[in-house]
UniProtKB/TrEMBL annotation:
Main function: Catalyzes the reversible oxidation of 3-phospho-D-glycerate to 3-phosphonooxypyruvate, the first step of the phosphorylated L-serine biosynthesis pathway. Also catalyzes the reversible oxidation of 2-hydroxyglutarate to 2-oxoglutarate.
Root EC class: oxidoreductase
Protein name: D-3-phosphoglycerate dehydrogenase
Keywords on record: Amino-acid biosynthesis, NAD, Oxidoreductase, Serine biosynthesis
Residues of the full protein shown: 1 to 310 of 527
Keyword Ribosomal protein set for record: no
GO BP field: L-serine biosynthetic process
Any GO MF annotation of the entry: phosphoglycerate dehydrogenase activity
Similarity-based family: Belongs to the D-isomer specific 2-hydroxyacid dehydrogenase family.
Amino acid sequence: MKIIVAEKISDKGMEVLQASGAQVDLKLKIPREELLAIIPDYDAIVVRSATKIDEEFFAHAANVKVVGRAGNGVDNIDMTAATKHGVIVVNTPDANSVSAAEHTIGLMLASSRKSPQANTAMKNRIWDRSPFTGTELYRKTVGIVGLGRIGALVATRLQAFDMKVIAYDPYIADSRFEKFGVEKKETLAELMQEADFLTVHTPKTKETLGMIGKEQFSLAKKGLHIVNCARGGIIDEEAIAWAVTEGIVVAGGVDVLQDEPATTSPLFDLEHIIQTPHIGADTVEAQDNVGVSIAHEVLSALRGEVVPNA
Ligand code: MLT
């Protein structure tokens, strides 16, 4: 068996793959044309979010039987094309959820206390407290869009800050809202009207792309704080810039951009929107979990065994 690892996974994950006796080739950041040229030699590929696994890929990947997505979101993989070509796609939906939830809360705290901006001032040898007056989370209302794995982890953690947690998720049973002590909002509009803090935790689909735009921001209270650790564009980037100029959004943390890796974005010039380069899942623990899980899943799928996250 030949497996190509096209994006970095943890050493522990690599060890699991290598221990199987398969030939494992680590080919990081290879140009697309090169990947397409060598892919016919491989039985499986392991990727994260940067590699587009689309119809063109499958047309070249005659021997690929398994695509392993080391992580949760599969928006870089054309699932219809995978099915058409008889390729199994496996991912690791639970392995990095805690890290993503913690990064969400980290960005919420950091942006509401302007900690990165204060840090930059200090590093420039400027001691001045006055620009950095922040906002407490205590007794504020946080609106969560998407009460799946990560949304629920964020909800329970923010309850410890004495926040009121409301959520909008038309795909989730009422019992899940009850289980997590979260107030259900029937519409996104209601959530937007009530939230002091907004965080999104949905996959990127045709339905969720741009789901928070100017129209939704227009419903919000002035002074809204936002976080996007899910996928770029779920909160529309132009709309964020507009909402900042209108005084609707006053702070925020964004880990993901619509076009990654990104060198331009309307968010780059917004002082109060802090940004990180899609590192929500980048912790030692999450990467070990993800690497080991995806390695086992890819090997099981190649052996024709039952795979939990196929
Ligand atoms: C995920 O979908 O698992 C995260 O966004 C992290 C990643 O893309 O690797």
